[in-house]
Amino acid sequence: MNLKRKKEVLTKRRWRIRKKIIGTEDRPRLTVHFSNKHIYAQCIDDAKGRTLCALSTLAKDFTQKTTSPNIATASALGRDFGVKIKAAGFQKVVFDRNGRSFHGAVKAFADAARESIIF
Fold first, then answer.
1. Is 24 domain-assigned?
2. What are phi and psi of 57, to 5 degrees?
């Protein structure tokens, strides 16, 4: 499968998921993105179109030394992000896996964040 076709398939998968998942002010959308080097997570209010809180492995708040997007880093970031969401006053969020399969690092992030908040 060539690179252009891979991107098309990923984009279609993302939008297919996004049709069903909508973040509100009471229950924002928690989206996670994995690049080759870092992990980015944010809570989004889709009704107003703004980011409510965000955290990544680039942040100074994130204290883990290794920042590769593996299961250990994803679970550590998920715990920290769950605490940050809880401090911001959100009790429930909608999880958006951003087109990726729900296993491995995505599942580790979701499970770690779930310890602090409820999806």
1. yes
2. -75, -5
Helices and strands counted in the chain (H then E) = 3, 4
Please give the model's pTM, rounded to 2 decimal places: 0.86
Give the tens place of pLDDT for each residue, 31-80. 999 999 999 999 999 999 999 999 999 988 777 677 788 999 999 999 99
Q: Which two tokens stand for residue 113?
A: 């964040």
Which CATH number covers residue 95? 3.30.420.100
User: Is 119 a member of any domain?
Assistant: no
Q: Which two tokens stand for residue 109?
A: 């992030």
Q: Which of 43, 47, 48, 44 is nearest to 85 (CA)?
A: 43
Amino acid symbol at 57: T
| Inside any domain, residue 100 | yes
